[in-house]
Amino acid sequence: MNVCPHQGVIQYADGWMVTSHDLVTEVALDDQTFSSATSRFLQIPNGLDGQDHDVFRALIDRYLTTERVDQLQEGFTQVATTVVEDAVIKGDIDAVSVGAQFAVGATTTWLGWPKELGDELVDWVHANWKATRSGQLSQTAAVAAWYNSIIDGLVNERVANPRDDVTTELINDTFLGRRLTREEITSILRNWTAGDLGSMALCIGVCMAHLAQDQPLQEELRTGSLTVAGWHSIIDEILRLDDPFIANRRVATKDVTLGGLTIRAGERLYLNWTAANQDDRVFGGYDPHQHADKNLVYGIGRHVCPGRYLASEQLRIFLTTVLSTTAAIVPGQAPPTRAQAPAGGFSQVPLRLEVD
Predict the structure, then answer these.
(1) For residue 211, which of 92, 326, 78 has the smallest C-alpha distance?
(2) Contact yes or no for 183/177 (Cβ under 8 A)
């Protein structure tokens, strides 16, 4: 690898890896020079630019308001209680696998999908991780086709027999005076779920691994005195320290100088959120309050994650349920196993859940 003089851009694969906090922020905020339209497939909204992005984002944001997410708290708590009670009975667990169970249950609760679909979705999460790590287009295409078939079935059922759920609402929603196309519906549902199922499991693994190593923080969180905002800031900081969202792609729309290096029009860039969130020129050790305004776990700018509040609430509800059900979360006999790129965090986090 060749590093530019700035030490923030690294020659990587078919383009450049941007690693420093200042340059990642610069690229993410300049969406005219650095386009998010990097895939030949429709990706709503994160693969769109400019006005195209904004109008779809406005549609999607209506489904992810604080008020709508707050209405899901009871359902998420029920899912968390079921998953955690089963984990406590086992005692020795893998936090990532438990996280996948919760992620699937929370997603099906939110979108109104049948609970019986849960096992298939968990299997899909693991297959998707394996296919992504393989780097083989045939494997990634196969798991994408599998997921599309799941969504097609769910959409077809609701077209024939509308239901009182978010998926039916999306199917019947209007966009610029028209109904969404099937391709658009599938893309939105993929954006809401396909990546988030695996990401939520990885986030839970990172958070649980951190708590197992920090008994004082466990006790602080068990007091129940934190506000929702306080919880979110602590979760964000834990994820910043070990960011499971490694990178997003961009493509230069024109020749541009970045960190003293010339990037040519058409060249790809990878925004390394994990490296940026560990830039020691910006961050020190664990400090939720000091680091909050610089934290890039959910991105920054026009393409900041629309589901940030939803994800934060799911994590808060899961972790509060674990802490209220246990006396201690302690490391397992084996150390956590690091996830392989392009995933971050851990692929396995052995832990023991202890009760009184």
Answers:
(1) 326
(2) no
DSSP letters spanning 1-19: --B-TTSSEEEETTEEEE-
Residues 311-331: pLDDT tens digits? 999 999 999 999 999 999 999
> In angstroms, how far is CA 340 from the centroid of its own chain?
16
- Which residues contact residue 52 at a Cβ distance below 8 angstroms, ignoring those fewer than 6 apart? none
Instruction: Tell me how far the alpha carbon of residue 51 is from its chain's centroid.
Output: 24
Q: Which CATH superfamily is domain 9-325+348-352 in?
A: Cytochrome P450 (1.10.630.10)
DSSP 305-347: -TTHHHHHHHHHHHHHHHHHH-SEEEE-SS--EEPPTTB-SEE
Question: In this structure, which amino acid lies at residue 103?
Answer: A
Cα 219 to Cα 150: distance, rounded to the nearest angstrom = 42
- What's the CA gap between 224 and 309, in Å, rounded? 20
Positive or negative torsion for Cα 226, 230, 234, 239: positive
Share of the chain above pLDDT 70, in %: 98
Helical H runs in the chain?
Answer: 21-29, 50-61, 66-70, 73-90, 95-111, 118-134, 137-160, 166-171, 182-212, 215-222, 228-241, 273-276, 288-291, 308-325
Which region holds residue 224: left if phi is over 0, alpha if psi is between -120 and 50, else beta?
left
Q: CA of 149: how far to CAs of 47, 144, 145, 152, in Å? A: 21, 9, 6, 5
Give the chain's mean pLDDT.
93
Q: What is the pLDDT of residues 91-119, one digit of tens each?
A: 999 999 999 999 999 999 999 999 999 88
Give the model confidence (pLDDT) of 155-185 as tens digits: 999 999 999 999 999 999 988 889 999 999 9
Closest by Cα among 205, 191, 143, 144 to 310? 191
SS3 170: helix
